[in-house]
């Protein structure tokens, strides 16, 4: 019997400064969670650590300091296992993969701290496991995704005993919509053919379930970033995957979550800001709805439309930032 141990995490969202509602040292808190992942991976002699996107929180590379990257390198370098990662939307400018070279994540890929995952095979005792990475894409079309063959890379008769696919995509047991983005159902993803899907992007914990014989690990963000109810009550977790391959090449799986240690909510958040953030979210949604409903609103005149709306300055600035990003696409 040959065993592979994998540790997973998603949506770390680290930055030098935390959201307005945080009263703790946000960067230190997130680094502490990465440290917990490091200790677990080293204690369990993990074969790989898999990160399903959004290591960083701020998309503008100039807003992530060199010191932050240095601290990440120091922490990640202490993990004995190889770390594989895919790009999330927050790791890129305007969601463009071609912006990676100017992003801090590109630096971590270039110096080998993290390994950009697309198609990798890990091997132990002559047994192989396929790792596939699919980064964030706007309006992802599953029909265009070609999964690597489990046999084409090897001599005849040799195959990968298991295939694990990392995706940064809204996914859940059933299809739906979230923030005007599509939520892909697990049955859709199962048709891609991997045995295990490690999912990022959806911050809310969707658990670990099996659908059509495929395993879905969708534990949400390891960071509680805002005062939304789901974030306040969210229990940050890392994933644990054990793949056991018998002498006949048949794989079996043990997949579970491991809770990360976190401080009580009242030591992390300014709870008085809850109503403010809810109001801002309502105002932001109202502006988006107005853009959708009013065909006369264009990129050239959105600023004048914003000035006519009753919204907080913080919300207006956030809207302007998003719209300016959209203009670069």
The rough form would be described as globular
Could you estimate the helical fraction of the residues in percent? 25-40%
Strand content: 15-25%
Mean pLDDT: 86
What are the secondary-structure elements, in order, as H or E? Answer: EHEHEHEEEEEEEHEEEHEEHHHH
Largest sheet: 6 strands, mixed
> What count of helical segments does DSSP give?
9
Calculate the terminal CA-CA distance, rounded to whole Å: 50 Å
Strand arrangement across the biggest beta sheet: 4-3-2-1-14-15
- Unreliable segments of 5+ consecutive residues: none
Question: Could you say which structural class the secondary elements and strand pairing correspond to?
Answer: alpha/beta
Task: Give a structural overview.
- This protein starts with a strand and ends with a helix.
- The chain is an alpha/beta fold.
- The strands form 3 sheets. It has a 6-stranded mixed sheet, with helices on one face. The protein has a 6-stranded mixed sheet with strand order 5-6-7-11-13-12.
- Helix 3 (104-110) links the parallel strand 3 and strand 4 (115-116).
- It has helices at residues 26-43, 66-76, 104-110, 186-190, 229-233, 265-268, 274-293, 302-307, 313-327; strands at 2-9, 48-51, 82-85, 115-116, 119-124, 127-134, 162-168, 171-172, 176-178, 181-185, 196-200, 207-211, 214-218, 237-245, 251-259.
- Helix 1 runs parallel beside helix 2 (66-76) and helix 7 (274-293) packs across helix 9.
Please write out the topology.
Layout: E1 2-9, H1 26-43, E2 48-51, H2 66-76, E3 82-85, H3 104-110, E4 115-116, E5 119-124, E6 127-134, E7 162-168, E8 171-172, E9 176-178, E10 181-185, H4 186-190, E11 196-200, E12 207-211, E13 214-218, H5 229-233, E14 237-245, E15 251-259, H6 265-268, H7 274-293, H8 302-307, H9 313-327
């Amino acid at each position: 019997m040959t065993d592979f141990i994998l540790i997973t995490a998603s949506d770390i969202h680290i930055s030098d400064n935390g959201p307005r509602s945080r009263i703790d040292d946000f960067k230190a808190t997130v680094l502490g969670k990465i440290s917990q992942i490091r200790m677990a991976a080293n204690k369990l002699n993990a074969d790989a650590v898999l990160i399903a996107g959004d290591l960083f929180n701020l998309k503008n590379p100039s807003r992530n300091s060199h010191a932050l990257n240095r601290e990440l390198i120091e922490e990640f370098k202490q993990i004995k296992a190889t770390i594989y990662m895919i790009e999330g939307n927050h790791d890129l400018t305007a969601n463009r993969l071609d912006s990676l070279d100017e992003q801090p994540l590109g630096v971590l890929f270039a110096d080998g701290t993290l390994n950009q995952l697309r198609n990798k095979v890990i091997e132990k005792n002559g047994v192989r496991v396929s790792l596939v990475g699919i980064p964030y894409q706007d309006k992802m079309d599953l029909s265009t995704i070609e999964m690597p063959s489990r046999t084409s890379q090897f001599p005849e008769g040799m195959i990968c005993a298991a295939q694990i696919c990392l995706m940064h995509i809204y996914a859940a047991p059933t299809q739906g919509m979230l923030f005007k983005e599509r939520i892909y159902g697990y049955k859709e993803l199962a048709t891609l053919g991997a045995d295990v899907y490690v999912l990022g992007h959806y911050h809310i914990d969707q658990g670990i379930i099996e659908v059509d014989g495929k395993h879905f690990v969708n534990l949400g963000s390891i960071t509680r970033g805002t005062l939304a109810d789901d974030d306040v009550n969210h229990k940050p977790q890392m994933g644990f995957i054990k793949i056991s391959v018998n002498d006949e090449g048949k794989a079996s799986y043990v997949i579970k979550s491991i809770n990360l240690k976190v401080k009580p909510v009242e030591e992390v958040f300014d709870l008085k800001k809850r109503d403010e953030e809810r109001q801002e979210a309502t105002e932001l949604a109202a502006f988006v709805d107005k853009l959708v409903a009013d065909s006369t609103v264009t990129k050239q005149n959105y600023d004048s439309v914003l000035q006519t709306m009753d919204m907080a300055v913080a919300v207006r600035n956030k809207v302007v930032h998003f719209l300016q990003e959209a203009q670069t696409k």
